[in-house]
Amino acid sequence: MFKLLVFCALFMVMGIGHGFNHGQNLKDFDDFTILYNKLYANTSVRTFANYNFINNRNHIAQHNAQEERKHSTYREAVNQFSDLSLHQIINLFPKAQYTVPAQNSTPTATTEPTDTDFDIITGMGLTIDVEDQGTHCSSSWAYAAAKAIEIMNGIQTAESTPEPLSAQELIDCAGMGTGCTTQNPQTAFDFLKLTGLATAADYPNNNGLATQGVCVTDQILTGIKLEAYSTIKDGDDIALKRFVFNNIPVIVEYNPDTFGFMEYSSGVYVPPKKTKAIGSQFLVVVGYGHDADLDLDYWRCLNSFGTTWGENGYIRIIRSAKYPLAKNAIFPNTL
After folding, report:
1. How far is the C-alpha of 29 from the C-alpha of 60, rounded, in Å?
2. Cα separation of 63 and 273, whole Å?
3. pLDDT digits over 218-274, tens only?
4. Alpha-carbon distance 127 to 130, whole Å?
5. Given Cys at both, which of 285, 313, 317, 328 links 130, Cβ 3.0 to 4.6 Å?
6. How far apart are CA 33 and CA 41, in angstroms?
7. What is the end-to-end Cα distance of the chain in Å, rounded?
8. Three-state DSSP class for 104?
9. How far apart are the C-alpha atoms of 107 and 117, rounded to whole Å?
10. How far apart are CA 62 and CA 304, in angstroms?
């Protein structure tokens, strides 16, 4: 009798465990795969992705219920990462490595901030495309570097719609074998002091690659060249705010290895005090402000997860001495 009860219990657990594969859940997952053009190596991989999708969607619903009760300051939503487990996310976004000292230059002269709310993009009337690095290559270092230079170039040339620049060139030509794993923006800037950055039209981005490609050398002889770059000391958010106020896009390293960050949809993101892992995603800080409804100060950052992630590709992160944002911060100084 005891064995029969154990068998029945196991059968019920297995039935519940496989319940995600039926009815509306299956249709929702099929719609998800079509929307994000998902392809899986085999049935087993697809089944695991299906399980992750249902699990993550349930987590999102639970989190948003907490947000509606004012127990959270941001909302989450299904996006291109919703078929990944936390373990897969950690593997996709490893910690960046720094092996060469920065060729730091004296920063551009700046003035102290006077505005409580400031945004480079809207303030300068720029139209900037939000890029999508895809779900196969940890290439934010290249996308952030290209976007920071693109923004600065638009400001310096008074071009309100600057031409998008090629992150793929940086991945292929400056990646040094780690373009999809542990590379960092400083490597991109060092490379661009020697050669030019092509436009994305001339050297197209390819977010379907899981490894860096072969450098197309005839495309990098012309383009925007970086004369100098500067860095900000870790934790110096006062300097970070000052440079942003002076229309300087600053790249920072941020830990993406949490469901909250990966599924972020809107609001002011407050990271958990403890995380299971620390990886690297590079963001371009373009502004700061205050959310009156939440009574929170925030940074506005441009990510490279496409426009379906976050607030049209941007994230607002809490601005507080308890949560310093300036980490391995770097910015183009002179083009």
Report:
1. 15
2. 17
3. 766 678 999 999 999 999 999 999 999 999 999 999 999 999 999 999 999 999 988
4. 10
5. 313
6. 13
7. 79
8. strand
9. 23
10. 26
> Tens digits of per-residue pLDDT, 52-70?
999 999 999 999 999 999 9
Q: Which residue has the tokens 């019920």?
A: 12
pTM (2 d.p.): 0.92
Q: Distances in Å between the alpha carbon of 22 and those of 16, 52, 60, 80, 328?
A: 11, 15, 20, 22, 46
80's tokens: 């291109």
Distance from chain centroid for Cα 154: 22
Helix axes 23-35, 43-68, angle to 10 degrees: 100
Which string of b and e fits 12-23 if b means at least 16 CB within 10 Å? eeeeeeeebeee
What are the structure tokens assigned to 229, written together?
A: 């770059």
Query: CATH 3.90.70.10 region(s) of the chain?
Result: 90-334
Closest CA to 140 of 107, 175, 173, 105: 175
Backbone angles phi, psi at 190, to 5 degrees: -60, -40
10 has pLDDT over 90:
no
Residue owning tokens 């099929």: 30
pLDDT in tens, 23-34: 888 999 999 999
Q: Six-digit token pair at 58?
A: 């349930």
Tell me which H or E stretch contains 151.
Answer: helix 140-156
Angle between helix 140-156 and helix 185-192 axes, rounded to 10 deg: 50
Q: Report residue 283: phi and psi, to 5°.
A: -115, 155
Tell me, which fold does domain 90-334 have in CATH?
A: Cathepsin B; Chain A (3.90.70)
